[in-house]
Amino acid sequence: MKSKRAPHRNGRCRIVLTGGPGGGKTTAADLFRREIGERVVIVPEAATLLFSGGFPRSNRELAVHAAQRAIYHVQRNLEDTQAALFPGRILLCDRGTVDGAAYWPDEPHHFFGAVGSTLEDELARYDAVIFFETAAAGGLGIEGGNPVRNETIQQALAVDRRLRTLWSRHPRFVLVPHNASFFKKISFGLAVIDGMVADLLCDRGSTTKRRRTKGK
Fold first, then answer.
1. CA 9 to CA 204: how far, in whole Å?
2. Is 1 part of a structural domain of the chain?
3. pLDDT at position 135, please?
4. Does 210 fall in a domain?
């Protein structure tokens, strides 16, 4: 479903790449950045930055709460930093601020209450969501090249379902389904990203043109 969402007040657009572990989103983001160059800027995954940097990782409930709150705030500030450093570019976010709710041990609304927000407010931060379904959906391994990933196939499937339930409420949500061919899946994902970027740039250009016309 497509919806004409108003551009952010700072004139930048934000696209989230999300999905269960081992979906290929990080690979797609890197390939797209290399192909497109200065039209977009990547916002790296906050969880990987934290855990690879020494932030403790535990399955204990209070520790998970603390980690997800930290990831949420780092994610928000990473996005704001990249937006400030690269004005005018589209932000391609490797995960978004909604993701923490899927990893929260309790109900999702408890996560948003813990960070002082709501699902609706967090979805509104983004102009589009591209969801890469986990490879676990096809019974494939999800190890990839991420050394901090520790989910089993069953856990990856569960996270994928929770993430999809949350993110699919966005009016501009596109699914990149699992494919036995990783090449075909990534090719489809790149085409979706390319089309979304072009669409958002056109929307923003039309809005800018209307503003200039009103100002005459």
1. 11
2. no
3. 83
4. yes
- What pLDDT, in 10s, does the model give residues 139-180? 676 565 555 556 678 888 999 999 999 999 999 999 999 998
DSSP 30: H
Q: What CATH number is given to the structural domain containing 126?
A: 3.40.50.300
What six digits make up the tokens of 125? 């931060």
Q: Considering the domain boundaries, does residue 7 fall inside one?
A: no
pTM of the model: 0.82
What's the Rg (C-alpha) of the chain? 17
How many other C-beta atoms are found inside a 10 Å radius of the C-beta of residue 103? 16
Coil, strand or helix at 24: coil
21-30, 84-93, 117-126: which has the minimum mean pLDDT? 21-30
Domains contained in the chain, number? 1
Chain-centroid distance, C-alpha 11:
19
Distances (CA, A) of 27 to 23, 186, 202: 9, 8, 26
Q: By the 8 A CB rule, do 139 and 153 touch?
A: yes
